[in-house]
Task: structure prediction
Amino acid sequence: MAAPTAPLPPPWESDLTPEQLDQISVATQDIGRRLFDQFRADRPRLWQRRWWDDRVMAWAMRDEHLKVELFRFVDVLPMLKSSEEIAGHLLEYLDRVPDALPWWLRSVLGFGRSNALTRAMLARAATLASSDFARRFIAGSTTAQVLKSARRARKQRQTFTLDILGEAVISESEAEAYFRAYVDLIEGVAPQVNQWPAIEQLDQGVLGPLPRFNLSIKLSALDCHFDPIDPAGVFERAGERFRQLLRIAQQHQAFINVDMESYDKKDLTLQIFQAVLMEDEFRQVADVGIVIQCYLKSALHDLHRLAEWARQRGTPVWVRLVKGAYWDYETVHARAEHWPIPVFQQKWQSDATFERATRYVMQHIDHLRPALASHNIRSLAHGLATAQVLGIPKNGLEVQMLYGMADVEKRALAEQGYRVRVYMPYGELIPGMAYLVRRLLENTSNDSFLRAGLYEQAPVEVLLRDPLASEKTDGRRTRISSNSPAS
Amino acid sequence: MTDADPHSCNAEFANEPHVDFAVEANRMAMQAAISRVGAQLGCHCPLVIDGESVDTEGRLASVVPYEFTRQVGTTASADASHADRAVQAARSARADWARLPARRRSDKLRRLADLMRRDFFELSAWEVFESAKPWREATADVCEAIDFCEYYAEGAERLAACRGADVPGEENRFVYLPRGIAAVIAPWNFPLAILTGMTAAALATGNAVVMKPAEQSPIIAAKLMQLALEAGIPPGVLHYLPGKGEEVGAALVEHSYVHLIAFTGSREVGLAIHARAAQVSGKRCKFVKRVIAEMGGKNAVIVDRDADLDEAVAGVVYSAFGFQGQKCSACSRVIVLKDVYDAFLHRLIEATRSLPIGPAEQPATIVSAVIDQEARDRILRYIEIGRQEGTEALAVDVGELARSGYYVGPHIFADVAPDARLAQEEIFGPVLAVLSAEDLDEAFRIANGVDYALTGGIFSRSPAHLDRARREMEVGNLYLNRGITGALVGRQPFGGFKLSGIGSKAGGSDYLLQYVIPKTITENTMRRGFAPPE
Ligand SMILES: Cc1cc2nc3c(=O)[nH]c(=O)nc-3n(C[C@H](O)[C@H](O)[C@H](O)COP(=O)(O)OP(=O)(O)OC[C@H]3O[C@@H](n4cnc5c(N)ncnc54)[C@H](O)[C@@H]3O)c2cc1C
Result:
């Protein structure tokens, strides 16, 4: 049964004037170049761990098949108990891509097949390397550890939002446990964080102080049958837990952001968010945020409805604009089901939508507060330029980035006086694997800005190019890097 | 058709997309169809023989399994005399049908697929009521019926493409002829898809068909009959004979002009049909009756020690309890490597406990009632046996629901021994046996140590272990790192061996060969030393 296609966006309100757009485009180049100058001087050195990480990533990226096998290995690793098992898996995975390995590694692996000592060494090396990667993207395994990371960020004039990594919620007891973990985190940690010294750049918004404690939650973690087939039932269960979290957050001056997950949960998530926050009890709550994923063909349409809703509500909400973390899944899943693919297939379309959405949010700044979540300098520079042209002060917006990614950019923006918020996931490694693998995919994707900009050092003009220019010059899938390897 | 090889896998076959219930319009359409069909419950469906309605004194009643005081409707109940009338009508109609070019027959099946698309949500709603199929299951069954029509339509055209192996002076042709008259004896668990599949395969290859739907799902079958006539299938080549298996079913199996019996159902009945068909072959009828039988399973999923437990638990829960465990492909044994046994079992129990149970018409429902009283009694007996043979790790109480519907809550038995009845016999209900294995060798030994070989699976992240599973697991359909139900036409041809069936594959490229008789025609084209040019 063919699913009807999503409705077209409503008659679209006018974008900014051509003059404003011109100003933005000039300012974008300006801001972008300044950022590049600032952080290309700040490159990792040989003696820093990051330099080695970057080498390993670059190596893994040379071959798509090798990459798949390595990521599969990383994915299973936390489940493996003995070094025999670890080495065994590593050999099995790498055996499938012999041509992608350098000669020396092939011979080490060859030894590993017959020699127990070599196997033990291999296992140890692989475990160290992987936990190193995990530690790069996961800000700690306990609350105490993540608080340390948070403190460290604030010392560098960056702030944070916490995310609890957990297993897929497949039973009511797991949903209850997740909910309790959120509650405990707010009740246990917010009071401490509220004692930390205020930092004007981070804690002062245009309308007054912002909560220092910021938590990102997933609504699907609150209900084990977060299934769009039954919106009413889900609303009853997840909506009630969301209400309780909002209540507790208010008691502790905590900010709650609702993350966005796969496409099938998107409408349900927006619906619960909007319905609950429209209720009398929560109508005044301003310390909340939601995510719009700009790789979705429906992004602008949803944003438009969100603005309309926020206007009626009368209290603004924060909107975290992202491109979206599930691109591969959405594409593969829709293809397998013969459903219309909900995400754009050309990278520039996601980029252009991100920029269009940025302008839209900033035009509706009374109702929607902009949080630009990207590591792409072009996307960010365009946002900062738009704010400049529209007269939005630095503390009227924020830039958000993931823990362990684009640290040079974070520093550069913080130095320029922007509020940079670091998304800090934490928790045990097994439940954290899904997150870690998404980060690895993202860092090594052909279309990734970070890959082109940081690992491969593409020229600045190319990196700062207007995504719409890609549409004009190249109808095919465009690559932003000039020297990326063939895959 | 350029590709004349019936064995080639047509990977490009496009399945009917399943319904995306994240789309509001689809939810509303389903809800509306349920209301509409709900208002039509209580209808009566006579037999259809040679295009004519024939009523009988005896009647079959079809009830809503999750609310047994409500009738879906009644049908007439055919006996041996009706079977004979239908077969006689098929005898006079079959020659014309067989002579049609394959393309013309296939076009009618494609038309039938289109009509199912037109009535998509109504048909799904009838299944919700008649079989207690939750929304996703019901709509998937209609999708599969559509797929069967189109897949076999295409396959029959491919078969009909002429094959030759000529040499100068000699012309060789290889053609497929229909077998004649097919009796299609279908089950209630995929009430539209399997009935449609066997029927469409027979029709596409030029046979005439007498349909004997399951006693528990005759109404949805009547809908199929109506649509087939509307699609232009000639009245003489398709007949609808609901009735009791022992009467009309047995009469069809024995009938001297029934050439082929396509059966899907229990092992007991399948083997009986096979035996009976062999007995009468060459005595009452001057040919060897062909039996296509797909029977039960005792399907196992192995959980390796490195498995992704999120995926393994979700995959097993759905495979074991989706549609109340009443699929031939359902998982009824899970074999867990001892290192992860406790962790897996704990999450399995919690996830199963959380399954929404209720009327199939409610969108959230995953587990509804089982098909009838007999099924419930049988399942409850096995639960009793389980209490003696294993540890009752979970017994979901359905409470009040049991008063008005044939509900059985999901049950999990842990520490079941491989030779226990619970680990050997097909239960066909929401009962799952959990077994522990020392290592993979033992896991494979347990998995293969049953009479059946239908579906099976393994969750593992070791390439070497997956390779071993590929080689060593004795099943017709093997699934690696996913649930073991929901085979798609063309993509996962379905069927098993040992006592699960004769080894044929529904929805596969060689399925149609069972419905035809190959014939070789050789002509000497040489006349006094001259032959036509090549
Ligand atoms: C603070 C923060 C919070 C986040 N929260 C969420 C969240 O709640 N939900 C969520 O889904 N994501 C979330 N993200 C993740 C985010 O989606 C990814 O990090 C982001 O997509 C990377 O984009 P970029 O602009 O940094 O990099 P870029 O390299 O510019 O963009 C990469 C992105 O482009 C898109 N893309 C890649 N290839 C194609 C293609 N061929 N066609 C079209 N589009 C393509 C993908 O979205 C890919 O991730 C968050 C990110 C941050 C920084």
